[in-house]
Amino acid sequence: MKNINLSDINISHYQDKIVNFGVSLVVGILIIIIGFWIASWVGRLIKKQFTRSELSVSLRSFIADLVAMLIRILVILVAMNTLGVQTTSFVALLGGLAVGIGMALQGSLANFAGGLLILLFKPFKVGDTVEVMGNTGTVQEISILQTIMLMPNMKTVILPNGSVFNSVIINYSKSGERRIELEVGIGYEDDFDKAKAILLDILKNEPTLIHDKGYVVEINEFGESSVNLAIYAYVKSADYMATRWKLNREVKTAFDANGIDIPCPQRYIHIVPDKKES
């Protein structure tokens, strides 16, 4: 057995390695502690900022947690690099894993991206009345992957955010005002000026209308059985449906009281006598 001469061992070399590793370990631990604290602080800050928005609680928490998680992953990579660990292969593994998950969840990621774009550009918010993908209703919730709407018939419609953002969105609440558009027919024998005066009087006496914007009562078209009048007036978005129904009732009542008929479709049939019978 070969005798080991302790004098041949460079103890200072190993001491330097141990000291350097110890320093790197302490620095790495400090990086993790401080980095994780920063991640938690950023997450809380995002949640606090989002409390002023109309986003659902679940979406606020998800975005805050996602940002905090990404910061923690970055902190761990920096700490590993400080300890001398090669992070290239680890990053490549994470990248491959992300690609695989992305392909498996392609539709969900598109909906998540749509949700973020809705948050960023704000085409609508909770409480707005919108028309999207053929559905008209009130936005109840903007969640992580979907938008939930309540229809006038009290049915709940759940729409994927990706499809929502890529479709045409009509927001009836954005300006806070809506134009009521009514059409009513009068007979060809009726006096248009008289009918117009009656309709204008109804509009001027309706308190929910925005009178500064004026009104329109004009002949819209000549139908087969009636002269069709267009009635335009502006109202607050919240009063739209109730005012529309009220105006319809008042128009019918006023026309009945003034002897103006609202014609139904009519057909005149002329019977030609048979020449043989004559």
TrEMBL record:
Keywords: Cell membrane, Membrane, Transmembrane, Transmembrane helix
A UniProt-annotated Pfam family: MS_channel_3rd
Domain Mechanosensitive ion channel MscS C-terminal, residue spans: 180-262
Domain Mechanosensitive ion channel MscS residue range list: 108-174
One Gene Ontology cellular component annotation held by this UniProt entry: plasma membrane
Domain Mechanosensitive ion channel transmembrane helices 2/3: 69-106
Keyword Transmembrane helix on entry: yes
Native organism: Riemerella columbipharyngis
Family stated for the protein in its record: Belongs to the MscS (TC 1.A.23) family.
Domain of life of the native organism: Bacteria
Topology in the lipid bilayer: Multi-pass membrane protein
GO molecular function terms attached to this record: mechanosensitive monoatomic ion channel activity
Membrane-spanning ranges: 20-42, 62-84, 90-121
The protein's name in its UniProt record: Small conductance mechanosensitive channel
Subcellular location: Cell membrane
